[in-house]
C-alpha cells in the first residue's frame, strides 16, 4: 500500500508539472528526484507531430531529380504546389488507372484483334461499376495506410482532405476520364 | 561536440541529402529532438515549439542545396534557422499579445539555455530506450497530455497499473540520465 501511495503522489506531482510546469516538493527525496526527471519531460514532442512533419518533408522529396542549382525553380509557387502534391497526384492517378482498367484492357484486346467491338463494349458496360468500386476501395485503403503513419485523427484527416483533396480527386478524374475517352474514341463505350 | 570522424560522417550525409533529398530523413531524425527542445525552451509553449520546428525543418530542407560544408557542424546552421524562426514567431505573437515579464525568452544566459536544450533533448531521446509499455505511458502522458484515466482506457489497463508504469518509467529514466551523464 505504501508503494501505491507513492505512485499516486508521483502522479499528482506529474499532473502539476504538465498543467503548470512546476511541482511542490512531496517531502520525499526519492519522489522529488523522480518529479525533477518528469519536469524535464514537459512538452515531450508528440509522436504524431514528429511523424507527420517527417512525412510532409519527405513527400516533397519523392522522385526529386532536380539538381541543386535549380533549387530556386522548386520554390516557384506553381512548382512548389505540385512538389507538395506529388504523392497524392500519383495516388489519384493510380486509382484512376484502376477504375479505367476495363476500358484500357478492352481497348488493348480490341486493338490486338482478339475480340470484337461489341464484346468489348459489353465487357466495359458490365464491369465498369466493379472497377470503379475497386478503385475507390484502393484509394481509401491507400489513404488509410498513409494517415496511419501520421496518426489518424479528425484533424489529420481534415488537413489531408483540405490540402490534397484537389490533387487526389483531380488526378483520379483526369486519368479515369482519359481512359474512358480513349475507349469512346475507339467506339467501344 | 563532434569529433573529426563524426564531422566527416555528417559531411557525407549532408552531401548525400543534397543529391537525394530523401536522405534528409536521417538528418531530420538526428536533429529533431534538439531543434524541438531549442524551440520549446525559447517559446515555452508546445504549439509554438511545433510551429518553429516545422518551419525550421521546412527551411532547412528547401535550402539544403545552398549549404556549403566549411567544417562547422550542421547543427550550427540548423540552430541559426531555428533561432530566426523563433524570433519571427515571437515577434508575431508579441504583436498579437505582449509577452508577459519573465517569459522563457527573457531569462537565462545563452550558455544556460544551450545546456538546457541539450539536457532536454537527451531526455527526450532516452524515452525511446524505455520498455514498450513504459514508453507508451510517457508518450501519452507527456507527449499527448492525456490523463491517467485516458491512458488507462487507451492501453486497456487499470489506472493503478498506469501509475505504476509511469513510476517505473521515471525510475528507469533517472538511471539512464545518470548513465548518460557518466
Could you characterize what this model shows?
The complex is a heterodimer of chains A (189) and B (182). Chain A is built from eight helices and no strands. By secondary structure, chain A is mostly helical. Chain A has two domains: 2-40; 47-185, no CATH class. The radius of gyration of chain A is 27 Å and the shape is elongated. The termini of chain A are far apart. With 182 residues, chain B is an all-alpha fold. Chain B folds into two domains: 1-108, RNA polymerase sigma factor, region 2, helix turn helix motif (Rna Polymerase Sigma Factor, Chain: A); 128-182, Winged helix-like DNA-binding domain superfamily/Winged helix DNA-binding domain (Arc Repressor Mutant, subunit A, Orthogonal Bundle), CATH 1.10.10.10. In chain B, 75% of the residues lie in helices and 0% in strands. The model of chain B has no long low-confidence stretch (mean pLDDT 86).
Describe the SSE topology.
The complex is a heterodimer of chains A (189) and B (182).
Chain A: H1 2-20, H2 29-40, H3 47-61, H4 71-74, H5 77-99, H6 101-111, H7 117-150, H8 154-185
Helix pairs in contact in A: 1-2, 3-5, 5-7, 5-8, 6-7, 6-8
Chain B: H1 4-19, H2 24-43, H3 46-63, H4 74-96, H5 110-127, H6 132-143, H7 148-155, H8 159-180
Helix vs. strand class of chain B? mainly alpha
Mean pLDDT of chain A: 81
What is the highest CATH level, the class of the largest domain in chain B? Mainly Alpha
How many extended strands of chain A? 0
Shape by Cα distribution of chain B: globular
How many separate domains make up the residues of chain A?
Answer: 2
At CATH level 2, the architecture of the largest domain in chain B is Orthogonal Bundle
Number of strands of chain B: 0
Structural class of chain A: mainly alpha
Main sheet: strands, sense, barrel of chain B: none
Unreliable stretches of chain A: none
What Rg of chain A is obtained from the alpha carbons, in whole angstroms? 27 Å
Fraction of residues in β-strands of chain B: under 5%
- Number of alpha- plus pi-helical segments of chain B: 8
Please give the share of residues in helix of chain B: over 70%
So how many helices of chain A?
A: 8
Amino acid at each position: 500500500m505504501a508503494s501505491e501511495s507513492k505512485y499516486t503522489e508521483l502522479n499528482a506531482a506529474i499532473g502539476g508539472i504538465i498543467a503548470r510546469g512546476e511541482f511542490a516538493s512531496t517531502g520525499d527525496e526519492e519522489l522529488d528526484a523522480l518529479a525533477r526527471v518528469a519536469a524535464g519531460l514537459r512538452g515531450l514532442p508528440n509522436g504524431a507531430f514528429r511523424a507527420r512533419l517527417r512525412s510532409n518533408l519527405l513527400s516533397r522529396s519523392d522522385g526529386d531529380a532536380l539538381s541543386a542549382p535549380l533549387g530556386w525553380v522548386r520554390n516557384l509557387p506553381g512548382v512548389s504546389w505540385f512538389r507538395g502534391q506529388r504523392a497524392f497526384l500519383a495516388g489519384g492517378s493510380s486509382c484512376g488507372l484502376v477504375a479505367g482498367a476495363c476500358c484500357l484492357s478492352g481497348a488493348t484486346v480490341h486493338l490486338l484483334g482478339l475480340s470484337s467491338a461489341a464484346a468489348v463494349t459489353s465487357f466495359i458496360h458490365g464491369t465498369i461499376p466493379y472497377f470503379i468500386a475497386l478503385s475507390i476501395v484502393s484509394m481509401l485503403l491507400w489513404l488509410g495506410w498513409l494517415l496511419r503513419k501520421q496518426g489518424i485523427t479528425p484533424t489529420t484527416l481534415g488537413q489531408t482532405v483540405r490540402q490534397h483533396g484537389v490533387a487526389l480527386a483531380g488526378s483520379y478524374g483526369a486519368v479515369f476520364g482519359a481512359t474512358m475517352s480513349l475507349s469512346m474514341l475507339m467506339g467501344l463505350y | 561536440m563532434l569529433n573529426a570522424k563524426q564531422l566527416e560522417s555528417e559531411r557525407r550525409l549532408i552531401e548525400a541529402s543534397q543529391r537525394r533529398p530523401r536522405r534528409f530523413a536521417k538528418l531530420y531524425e538526428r536533429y529533431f529532438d534538439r531543434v524541438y527542445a531549442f524551440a520549446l525552451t525559447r517559446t515555452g509553449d508546445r504549439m509554438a515549439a511545433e510551429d518553429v520546428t516545422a518551419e525550421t525543418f521546412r527551411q532547412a530542407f528547401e535550402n539544403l542545396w545552398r549549404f556549403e560544408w566549411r567544417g562547422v557542424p550542421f547543427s550550427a546552421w540548423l540552430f541559426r534557422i531555428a533561432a530566426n524562426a523563433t524570433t519571427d514567431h515571437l515577434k508575431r505573437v508579441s504583436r498579437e499579445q505582449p509577452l508577459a515579464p519573465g517569459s522563457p525568452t527573457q531569462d537565462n544566459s545563452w550558455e544556460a539555455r544551450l545546456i538546457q536544450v541539450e539536457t532536454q533533448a537527451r531526455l527526450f531521446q532516452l524515452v525511446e530506450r524505455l520498455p514498450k509499455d513504459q514508453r507508451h505511458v510517457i508518450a501519452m502522458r507527456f507527449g499527448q497530455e492525456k490523463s491517467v484515466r485516458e491512458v488507462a482506457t487507451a492501453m486497456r489497463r487499470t489506472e493503478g497499473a498506469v501509475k505504476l508504469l509511469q513510476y517505473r518509467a521515471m525510475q528507469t529514466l533517472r538511471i539512464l540520465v545518470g548513465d548518460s551523464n557518466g
